[in-house]
Design goal:
166 residues, 5 helices, 2 domains, elongated, three-stranded antiparallel β-sheet, two-stranded antiparallel ribbon, alpha+beta
Length: 166
């Protein structure tokens, strides 16, 4: 959208002045700007007007980003809801058509109760806890020990069925 009448020579310099990928200033364009035979005041006015145009563009792009983010969030929520409905409807059965295959794959995750961290720290399982701002269980390590048959209080191996749509 053209808000202001900015000299074409300056517009050519202003556009793509900064490389979108690297963020670097195009020194050749800076040199061309300095060499232009346009009055200093006119360069300054055109530069200020282009800055105002950029302000408008930035505001518009931010609004568009918010709109797109809302659409993404809505699509993700719809997908989650529909996936849950499909899982309920299929009740573990698979379907295969020329256009889609819906199957299940087994996955495992470690389920911990609220007392695991305290228990681990007091009973020799500090190696299964990592320190951060607060302690967090090392679920990958716990899973290995549980799969090896070790019984760890407050932990269990949970078997899940995850729906796959291809």
């Amino acid at each position: 959208m053209k808000l202001y009448d900015i000299k074409k020579e300056l517009l050519d310099i202003y556009s793509d002045l900064v490389d979108e990928e690297t963020g670097e200033i195009d020194e050749e364009k800076v040199h061309r700007f300095e060499q232009l035979s346009i009055a200093k005041e006119e360069k300054e006015e055109n530069t200020a007007l282009y800055i105002k145009t950029l302000d408008y563009d930035i505001k518009s792009l931010k609004e568009e980003k918010k709109r797109i983010d809302r659409k993404i969030k809505s699509a993700e929520q719809t997908k989650g809801f529909l996936k849950g409905m499909l899982e309920y409807s299929l009740a573990g059965q698979t379907i295969k058509t020329p256009q889609v295959t819906v199957s299940y794959r087994k996955s495992e995750s470690v389920k911990l109760d609220d007392d695991f961290i305290d228990y681990a720290m007091k009973h020799g399982y500090e190696d299964l806890v990592k320190e951060s701002i607060d302690y967090k269980a090392k679920k990958t390590e716990i899973k290995k020990k549980l799969k090896a048959g070790e019984k760890i209080p407050h932990c269990e191996l949970e078997i899940k069925q995850n729906i796959q749509i291809k």
